[in-house]
Write a structure and sequence with these properties.
The strands form four sheets. Strands 1, 4, 5, 6, 9, 10, 11, 12 and 13 form a nine-stranded mixed sheet that branches. The protein has 24 helices and 17 strands. The longest helix is centred in the N-terminal third of the chain and has 26 residues. Helices cover 43% and strands 11% of the residues. Belongs to the LTA synthase family. Pfam families: Sulfatase.
Length: 618
Amino acid sequence: MKGALCVLARLNHRFFLFPLFIVIKIYMAWMILFETGPSARILLTEIPAILITYCIVEYFVKKHKIAWYLAVDLIITILFFSLVIYYKHFGVIATYHVLTQAKQVGAVQKSIFSVIEPQYFLFFLDIVVIGFFAFFRKKQPRVWKPISFKIVTSVACFSLLLCAISVIPNRGSFNENVKASKMGILNYEMYNLLSQKKEEIISADLITQPAIDALKNKITAEQPALQGAAEGKNLIIIQMESLQNFLIGMNIDGKEVTPNLNKLAQSNYYFPKFYQQIGQGNTSDAEFMINTSYYVPPDGPATQVYGKKNLPSLPKLLEEQGYTTMNFHTNEVGFWNRDDLYKAIGFDTYYDKQFFKDEDAFFYGSSDEVLYRKTAEELANYQSKGTPFYAHIISMSSHNPFTIPEEKYKMTLPERYEGTFVGDYIRAENYADYSLGLFIDDLKARGIWENSVVVVYGDHRGLPLFSLKADDKALMQEALGHEYAEKELINIPLIIAADGVTSPKVQTQLGGQVDVLPTVANLLGVSLTDYMHFGQDLLNQTSYNLLPQRYYLPTGSFVNSEELFMSGSGFDDGNYYTLAGNAHDHQSATEDEFNRALKLLQLSDSYVSQLPDRLEED
């Protein structure tokens, strides 16, 4: 080992040895983070950033330089390790904004740990080896020679120039992954940290409902169908964890995966072309959009960015109609700052882990069976008071990593599904469906069902493309009849059931999570004349819709009635995915829609950011 270290010393010591180790890690990270994998380009984008960092150490640190070199190595290593883990879980290259959510990691550690592969710990190998020989060997070969100040200065200046060449031309790229690959990961992270660019805020007096409707090409019906058809009924909205649309009607060797959802979809209004629009807040973002009809913020979860606002909302609209409003969630209300969200949108009360007491708990709270049983009991109490209620119910038992307890298994899977991520997902969703069936039966037995509008939808994707192994992809290919792609990833179901109102019908119009509020408002006869909203009533505006996407798809991506468009550096180098079949041929997405989608996001950001803060006592 002494001889090997001396050879490295002749290659000119720490100043080149440590960057070499980091370059190896960068190659490892690129193989995971980018479809194209590493190329010679990273020598021009990544190495300069590394050299600048070590030039700073050489210039300012006079003693214990090896400790500082190792410290820098460790920080960069932790960054790359974190980026890889976050990408494998969420499919997004994280920035410093995500670090503000570090306190949430403990609550979802099972999900995080589920994507960690043993080989990822190779990122830390050089630190362990060098640290051992640098600090624990009694006799160490002196291999670290002084380095010329002129060399340090020259290297720093040249590296800074190369970094600028990588960063400046790529600042305008819409696709965050493309931007990171062209800038280099370290440059991209530093650019996001230091960039002071803020989105232009549009004046509140320029944000009008007609302006929003024009961008969406929305034509309001003079006599809306089913307006007030469910007036006075209770509203029960059920948000199902990780529920994707391909599960509806899916059979595994002749066995239904979601028999209760299938029955519900076959007997009522079923919207198969319904899509998630969440951001960094995931489940809590879905809660935000359903209750406000606004888009999620560009950075950070809506609960944190908008949690202090006095938000117009569905609960407030219904309270004006005499409704009591409440939320049921088996996790702690502080998770994702949902306590702030519930105050901002004005729920009368909420029920969280304290109410459910972790009874029959797994993953992040009580089982769905407990959630629905205790919720039904509470709803019966509210119904007995003779006034209508709105209950928003959040299921959690089908949360990633989907490894539910064996005693909760409700279906036997074929051997080929055992021990796979896809198999665990299907089994968890089958249990969630089973629990939902018990809830529906309970509501009917208590006389609540026939007096309620019940809305069921998925909060977000469950099977991320970036986490699937070869056997999982093969199982998805078998189940779908084609390759699993982004269009299935963001496709979630929506079902609306109301006795005496809905009938068996597959609603083929396009919809997204911002559309739920105006749709149920129409059914309940609630006027939105003075309510700014970015969704549309899916029972009336059926010919066209435009769904801007954010965070989990590149900025500038959108879904129209025929295809999913995913932006590249801009519009011209984007990709198209038809919603029907498996074709990738371009059909209808236009640059005008691209620009309108971006404008809609800007209008929503501007409108919500200019809303007044709620009073502290609220």
